[in-house]
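JOB MANIFEST
job_type = single_chain_structure
chain_count = 1
residues = 295
[input]
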Amino acid sequence: MTRLADLAELVRAPAALSVPGDVLSGAAAAGALDRRTPALAGASVLLYWAGMAANDWADRRLDAVERPERPIPSGRIRPATALGVAVGLTAAGLAVAGAAGGRRATAVAVPLAATIWGYDLLAKNTAAGPAVMAACRGLDVLLGASVGPARGRGGREAPPAARGLVRALPAALTVAAHTWTVTALSRREVSGADRRLPRATLAGTALVAATALGRPDPVPVALAAGYAGRYGAAQARVLADPSPARVRAAVGAGITGLPALQGALTARAGARLLGLAVAAAAPLGRRLARLISPT
């Protein structure tokens, strides 16, 4: 019988703390924060977990050699079970997105799900892998903006949803750029990296942090600085010692540090308290990562 702990490891459950902030930052940027937003964030988590399960199913033969302790190669979860979990979570995520945001949310959730599966089954081990994964996160941000602004200025009729997507595009590109750096590093978790890679990802992290600042405001500035400091320090250690262990630590720092970046983007859009709440997931994620690896 499959244990709940094994399923949590399969989907890298703690890493899901880095997911709701995508939707929240997109909704904040679009002016679309309302009662639909929590459900869209829930749909995002379901799709993320689906992607993690599909990833392990697709990698089951490679993991038998490189990571035999993972749930499938260790025999704790059958391949068919992992595939069923991935398909079921995908269906659930699409259903929740549709119920919460109707056709507009579905129009973003379906390409998001397709991109997730495309990464796991086709793109992951190709040169396009980091870009495809970045697209997943960018679409996840746009999912939060998909329902459009909750209301227009001065109580007037809300502008079209497409305008909300345009407003959220800078936040989506920022999160996507961060995701590219994490994914590029993750491809060297087993073999280690040469020093050109952490140099490139460090430069990307500095640019990402700068774009998250927006207008001078102490809340997004502090959150962006915290994001850049912790994730940047982990990459600097890879630059000094590009061993697999250091690379894995940097990838973990990138995953668990993402809420700080999302919080900065949310606060930059004017939702300062919500931005702080989003960023608060970062230390919790780091604690949980000690129990279940996010990578």
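[summary]
The chain has a mean pLDDT of 91.
The chain is about 75% helix and 0% strand.
exit_status = 0
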